[in-house]
């Protein structure tokens, strides 16, 4: 690591000879592999951008020139070359570096990311701001082929094409999302790559024409949007990248440089193995590529996503109206089970959350029963579609909202903190959260029954449930009905979803005897159960893994304030602040929703 250890920042990098850059890239790649192998994190995407990162920081005068990464899971090399090599082993850990570019972390991180397809808008905003404020510098957005599929990216291209800036978009095309890239844009990019194979010198001709002010011989989608298009070029050839960046930054107007890279590049197991697995493989033995599983199969309860995925297949056999939709997360949400069994009835629509929800609404108008499998954090992108296209028209769509609650190492951009609060205010929605795998199956079963006429949101967390024997026979759940899990006195703990596990643990530790109710539904709220509890309890403690403001506890408090004003309600949940990254366990302790704090709250409530 001789070269890498001599570089703290891009100024050091720019002092190197061009002939040193390949060796630097080799060292940078080795460093990323060694740290991710030991500490976990995203791997494949960052290995694919090593040469691109070196060339970008070598040619552009960062941090004065503004470099915006899309999503940010491919920016490990960028972090390491921009003053964070020494701390990189703390990546994604509590109080450590963020796994994504983050403005508060470094002046080189020009824009905070985690969600995709924001880079062109953000970089264009910066370019327009500089134009108005008469600042001369370069603005570069680096966006992946899958992120480019999103509506937002195209909204930005549409604007940039006539906005009168010199924006540069680097399209990092590795033909992969987390799962294989999908759709017509993907096919268009593939066909461009095929052309590149037969015309490796095309880029020099393109540059010559651009400098001579001559039109390119053939047009393409990006040129039609007024971008000067360059490429496709080999994104692992630093010399070529340097040349193209040096040249194109002298050209006026918006430019798109189409760069071909390989996910996992330079690490044999990741380059030749399954790229989806190597997207974020967990810890592994760097020498052999063997992923080190923390537990043996069957030893632990299944992941909620798998219970969802497998249960959906069972139900799809019984109910032919069921179809599955995912916006680019088939593996993450385990819709892959349905995809394998019913390929014609399962749709990966790419990174297109808004489209996914309205597509579902459209299908629902024609008698299908769509199940949208979506992470809580990504449903935020489709909020208007949830209201305008689903709820107002009272169309029936089942939303299986995965990664609800604090997700852990991905941090604030990915926490599923807001879905209860943002969906509770929308009419025509049923909102439920299972406390375990059986409940998840039963809620899914209930949601698809014909007698249920409204859209049904089922939220569950990242990670595993609690039941090794998870496959119960489906049972109908009464809508809006909670369940007393433990009878007690004076203090009632009302939990929603898997927070009941935390409460159960707290109950084993307190000497008091509170009641514990699993409310199961945020909406409709089981007000009959609340009325009943109000008869002989003085304090309610609500526990949720969502935002306290406007969430489940708020729903209980609103009802209690109106109907049982003598009862005190204490709300536990995610406070009104940005919760950083760490393990899920650490973060629930940070916010005061771990068994110890719940127990303290119970004890306090019993103290007169
Ligand atoms: C709005 C949004 N939806 C989904 C995701 C989940 N996600 C993270 S990375 C990724 C794939 C990105 O692929 P691409 O843009 O091609 O970048 P690559 O990993 O190939 O470099 C997806 C779907 C996200 N981060 N943001
Ligand atoms: C970068 C991104 O958005 C995804 O890779 C995300 O980190 C996946 O998270 P899960 O591991 O919870 O699927
Ligand atoms: Mg890609």
UniProtKB/TrEMBL annotation:
Keywords: Isoprene biosynthesis, Magnesium, Metal-binding, Thiamine biosynthesis, Thiamine pyrophosphate, Transferase. It catalyses: D-glyceraldehyde 3-phosphate + pyruvate + H(+) = 1-deoxy-D-xylulose 5-phosphate + CO2. Its EC number is 2.2.1.7. Thiamine diphosphate binds at residues 73, 114-116, 146-147, 174, 267, 353. The keyword Metal-binding applies. Signal peptide: none annotated. PROSITE patterns: TRANSKETOLASE_1 (PS00801), TRANSKETOLASE_2 (PS00802). GO terms for cellular component: cytosol. Its cofactor is Mg(2+); thiamine diphosphate. GO terms for biological process: isopentenyl diphosphate biosynthetic process, methylerythritol 4-phosphate pathway; terpenoid biosynthetic process; thiamine biosynthetic process. Mg(2+) binds at residues 145, 174. Residues 302-468 form the Transketolase-like pyrimidine-binding domain. Pfam families: DXP_synthase_N (PF13292), Transket_pyr (PF02779), Transketolase_C (PF02780). InterPro entries: Dxylulose-5-P_synthase (IPR005477), THDP-binding (IPR029061), Transketo_C/PFOR_II (IPR009014), Transketolase-like_Pyr-bd (IPR005475), Transketolase_BS (IPR020826), Transketolase_C (IPR033248), Transketolase_CS (IPR049557). GO terms for molecular function: 1-deoxy-D-xylulose-5-phosphate synthase activity; magnesium ion binding; thiamine pyrophosphate binding. Belongs to the transketolase family. DXPS subfamily. Catalyzes the acyloin condensation reaction between C atoms 2 and 3 of pyruvate and glyceraldehyde 3-phosphate to yield 1-deoxy-D-xylulose-5-phosphate (DXP). Homodimer. This is 1-deoxy-D-xylulose-5-phosphate synthase. The gene is dxs.
């Amino acid at each position: 690591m001789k070269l890498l250890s001599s570089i703290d920042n891009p100024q050091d990098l720019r002092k190197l000879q061009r002939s040193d850059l390949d060796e630097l890239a080799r060292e940078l790649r080795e460093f990323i592999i060694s740290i991710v192998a030991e500490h976990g994190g995203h791997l494949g995407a960052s290995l694919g951008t090593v040469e691109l990162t070196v060339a970008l920081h070598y040619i552009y005068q960062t941090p004065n020139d503004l470099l915006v990464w899309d999503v940010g899971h491919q920016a490990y090399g960028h972090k390491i070359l921009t003053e964070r090599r020494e701390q990189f082993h703390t990546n994604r850990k509590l109080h450590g570096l963020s796994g994504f570019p983050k403005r508060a972390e470094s002046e080189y991180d020009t824009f905070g990311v985690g969600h995709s397809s924001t880079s062109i808008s953000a970089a264009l905003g910066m370019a327009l701001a500089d134009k108005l404020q008469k600042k001369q510098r370069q603005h570069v957005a680096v966006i992946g082929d899958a992120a480019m599929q999103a509506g937002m990216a195209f909204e930005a291209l549409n604007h940039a094409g006539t906005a009168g800036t010199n924006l540069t978009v680097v399209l990092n095309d590795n033909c992969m999302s987390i799962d294989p890239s999908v759709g017509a844009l993907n096919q268009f990019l593939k066909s461009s790559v095929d052309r590149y194979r037969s015309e490796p010198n095309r880029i020099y001709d393109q540059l010559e024409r651009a400098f001579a002010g001559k039109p390119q011989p053939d047009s393409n989608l990006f040129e039609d949007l007024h971008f000067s298009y360059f490429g496709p070029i080999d994104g692992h050839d630093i010399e070529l990248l340097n040349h193209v960046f040096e040249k194109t930054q002298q050209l006026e107007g918006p430019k798109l440089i189409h760069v071909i890279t390989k996910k996992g590049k330079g690490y044999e197991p990741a380059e030749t193995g399954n790229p989806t697995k190597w997207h974020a493989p967990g810890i592994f033995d760097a020498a052999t590529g063997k992923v080190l599983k923390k537990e043996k199969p069957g030893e632990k309860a299944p992941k909620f996503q798998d219970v969802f995925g497998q249960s959906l297949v069972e139900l799809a056999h019984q109910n032919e109206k069921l179809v599955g939709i995912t916006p680019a997360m088939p593996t993450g949400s385990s819709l892959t089970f349905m995809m394998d069994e019913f390929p014609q009835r399962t749709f990966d629509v790419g990174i297109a959350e808004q489209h996914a929800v309205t597509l579902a609404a459209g299908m629902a108008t024609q008698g299908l029963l769509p199940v949208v499998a979506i992470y809580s954090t990504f449903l935020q992108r489709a909020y208007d579609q949830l209201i305008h296209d689903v709820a107002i028209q009272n169309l029936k769509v089942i939303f299986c909202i995965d990664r609800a609650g604090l997700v852990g190492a991905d941090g604030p951009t990915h926490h599923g903190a807001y879905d209860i609060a943002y969906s509770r205010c929308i009419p025509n929605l049923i909102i439920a959260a299972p406390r375990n795998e059986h409940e998840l199956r039963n809620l899914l079963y209930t949601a698809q029954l014909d007698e249920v006429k409204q859209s049904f949101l089922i939220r569950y967390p990242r990670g595993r449930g609690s039941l090794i024997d998870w496959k119960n026979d489906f049972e109908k759940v009464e809508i809006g009905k909670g369940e007393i899990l433990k009878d007690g006195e004076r203090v009632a703990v009302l939990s929603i979803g898997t927070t009941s596990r935390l409460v159960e643990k707290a109950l084993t530790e307190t000497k008091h005897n509170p009641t514990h109710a699993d409310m199961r539904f945020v909406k409709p709220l089981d007000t009959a159960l609340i009325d009943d509890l109000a008869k002989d309890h003085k304090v309610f403690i609500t526990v949720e893994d969502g935002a306290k403001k406007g969430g489940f506890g708020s729903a209980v408090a609103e009802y209690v304030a109106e109907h049982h004003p003598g009862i005190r309600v204490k709300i536990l949940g995610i406070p009104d602040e940005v919760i950083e990254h760490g393990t899920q366990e650490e973060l629930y302790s940070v916010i005061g929703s771990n068994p110890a704090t719940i127990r303290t709250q119970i004890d306090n409530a019993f103290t007169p």
